[in-house]
Amino acid sequence: MTLPRTFAHVDTWVFDLDNTLYPHHVNLWQQVDARIGEFVCNWLNVGPDEARNIQKDYYRRFGTTMRGMMTLHGVSADDYLAYVHKIDHSPLEPNPALGEAIAKLSGRKLILTNGSVDHVDAVLARLGFASHFDGVFDIIAAEFEPKPAAQTYRKFLSDHSVDPTRAAMFEDLARNLTVPHALGMTTVLVVPDGTKEVVREDWELEGRDAAHVDYVTDDLAGFLAGLSHPT
């Protein structure tokens, strides 16, 4: 049996944003998901059910619905992002415990997201710990090629001078940890805590037993605090 990688050598902490830095049950992404459906419906002039099928098909095939819409239908990324991220962020509440845990980590803290910087800024402002992060690599920096594309991780590592063998990656989708693990990163899958209803596709909640997942947690604040204060 192969032992999971450790954190003693880690000097760069990489976090996904949505459903990772805030609880799944907030269902903030459900708002974005609905906006995406509206965009597809309006752009392709199809009914809601067909738009939903197209949206989820592109999500699975291209990594994001946006990439599918850009590739197959010539959609402008700026127009798409402006529309789908126009949501109500008020369900997000400050999370001082997580903020403190992130602040105590030794080394750089970066965000790697398929969303936009504007969305990142809005989320972090609500959570109350925007100042704890040293940089953001968003879908625009990725040249609109989303995770889990290998080239996106390589560009992120290059742009931010990250040594993957000295980095840890926190994600809510197991498939987005495949490439980071192969590159040498310590990987952590953040899952729902099981006490509240979450709106997710079944496949999005799979993978906690995958070989490329070193650790699984349903309490990111507690997990990070444990790294700063090991028992």
TrEMBL record:
One Pfam family recorded for the sequence: Hydrolase
InterPro entries linked: HAD-like_sf, HAD-SF_hydro_IA, HAD_sf, Pyr-5-nucltdase
PANTHER family: HALOACID DEHALOGENASE-LIKE HYDROLASE (PTHR12725:SF117)
Protein known as: Pyrimidine 5'-nucleotidase
